[in-house]
Amino acid sequence: MDSYEQLLQQAKDSEKINTPSTNVVKKAIASSKRKLILTTLTIALLIVPTCYMLTFLYYAFGTKSTTLMDVTSQTLYVTDPNTTLEELEFDMDFSLFSMLLSFEQYKQIGDEVYPIKHYDTRFMLNDLVEKTTTSKLEKTYPKYPTITNQWLVHPENQAEFNTSEEWQVLKGLPDETVVEAYISLNNLFTVEEVIQEMPKVDVTWAAIYTGVEDKMLSANGNVVSPIGYPVQQDYTNWSPFKNSTSHEQTFLSILHFLANYEDIATAVSSHKNLELKERISYLEKQDMKTYAVVITGPKAEIEQLKDNTMIKHLKLGEVKLWNWVR
Question: Protease among the record's keywords (predicted)?
Answer without folding.
Answer: no
